Amino acid sequence: MKKSSTIHFTELNVNRIQSLTDAVFAIVITILSLALVVPPGDTHFNHHHMIKTNIFSIWLNILFLMFVCLIPFSSGFLANYLNTTISVIIYSINLIMVSILHLAMLIYAWEKRFIDPHVDKNLYNNMRWRIILPTIVYVLIIPLAFLNKSWVVYLFLAPLFFQILFGRARKIGNEKL
Known about the structure:
- By secondary structure, the protein is mainly alpha-helical.
- The protein has one domain.
- It contains five helices and two strands; from the N terminus they run αααααββ.
- It starts with 13 loop residues before the first helix and ends with a strand.
- Residues about 170-175 have low confidence and may be disordered.
């Protein structure tokens, strides 16, 4: 009798994914702090609202973390070559990919009902816009980079204002969102 080598995932532990994500963010933030570069936006709090996961959401998370891990390189490249078009474009593309994958994870988790039931439609929309608006800025920065103007790099600060405008205004239990 031959044993099947297929692995069946019936239910995957979301806590392990959250721990991996926290660890990767801790490493990336440590690297960024050593370089004294401000990380973009608030990207990883949404992971802590997930209550379930599956293999597809794990792969989305892995791709997301891959691009998060590139942020120290792209921000360092930008810091060293501040007035070059290519450094601005590379940093923008990196942030665009992080944002797109973050949005994809959020939408997928919402559609599959993998998010904590206390997260209502209004909060979900707020989380989406906190990803979409900065992404629009990052996309707009790319053509502006060809102007070779020093002020273009300051546009990377604009998403911080979106985080303030669409900030965590609501609480779930004792946990602030």
